[in-house]
Amino acid sequence: MDMFRGFNIIQMEIAETFDDLDHAKYNEMKLNWADTIFPCFSFISGMLLKQDKIIPLNKNIQLIGLGMTFNLIPTILENKKFRPLGVLQRHGLSSILLNNLIPPNYRNKIIFPIALTTIWSLISKYLANNTDKPFENEIYTAQQKIDSIFFKGRQYHDNFDPEGLLGALMTTVTIWLGSWFISQNFNYKIIPFIGFSFILFGRLLSNAFPNMYPVSKPLWTPSFTLQTTGYSILNYCISNWLCLILPTSISNSIQLMGQYSLENYFFGELLLVGLKESYVRSSGVTLWDKIKSFFKFKFPFTNIDMSPYIMTSIFNVVLLGFTHLCHWSHFKIRLF
């Protein structure tokens, strides 16, 4: 599991470095590599429920608090409006719904994710302005209507937040699927086929009902849930495979990154924000673009720009160094 988390952190930094892999825009209604990262972490937390049946309420509340504290940084430094929502807050809310509001005897039954999907579908359709095309305009979606009541003027965009409250229902399903998957004890040989089946089912659902179940991370639709679950299962297979083929020193380093996944998330995001928001006065470009242009060159006999690959390598080496520093200093963010 440490290798799985560490491998996902590396993917997160790759997606941040390559612009083409970044999150799909709302109106694109498709799946980019960056869109699979957060669902994979949610899936992993579900897999760990086998070892820890119920996550205490105070841990989830602390996770929400950590996310809000992180969002205070731009509020204090740049005088921006405070945004209460975020990925950690979404995960904390979903975990509360799964672990603390639903009795275990109901939570573990297949009817639970079916009920959540049904509730999400009904709210998304009938609370939207256009019931035939409920997601045509993000301003008039059910998610935006709910969020505007609680967070008006404090969202990621003025008219929509990709980490909206309604999406927490389907994020809960993602966590549930992780718990279900690990409890089945599938034969390792058939696990890849299970992953591809989820991806195929998600695509069929989005093709059959494009207006109701488009693939979208900002909405966290059922088709998105199925496809990202499939990719999470495939990533789990790759992680196991990496444990077998990588040299022990590299394997141990990736696992160590997985053990400090929360610390790496905060450090990586802060470093990226600092680089991408800091402008070099002499040139008027960001520090990130300045460094990127320094490494910009074409690979011999090709037209491939090597700067993103070099930036990714450097960034992950820095993260690895930070991980060893945390390990050496015994620094760890603990949820009590």
Automatic annotation (TrEMBL):
<feature type="transmembrane region" description="Helical">
    <location>
        <begin position="164"/>
        <end position="183"/>
    </location>
</feature>
<keyword id="KW-1133">Transmembrane helix</keyword>
<keyword id="KW-0812">Transmembrane</keyword>
<feature type="domain" description="Heparan-alpha-glucosaminide N-acetyltransferase catalytic">
    <location>
        <begin position="1"/>
        <end position="125"/>
    </location>
</feature>
<dbReference type="InterPro" id="IPR012429">
    <property type="entry name" value="HGSNAT_cat"/>
</dbReference>
<feature type="transmembrane region" description="Helical">
    <location>
        <begin position="306"/>
        <end position="326"/>
    </location>
</feature>
<dbReference type="Pfam" id="PF07786">
    <property type="entry name" value="HGSNAT_cat"/>
</dbReference>
<keyword id="KW-0472">Membrane</keyword>
<feature type="transmembrane region" description="Helical">
    <location>
        <begin position="190"/>
        <end position="209"/>
    </location>
</feature>
<protein>
    <recommendedName>
        <fullName>Heparan-alpha-glucosaminide N-acetyltransferase catalytic domain-containing protein</fullName>
    </recommendedName>
</protein>
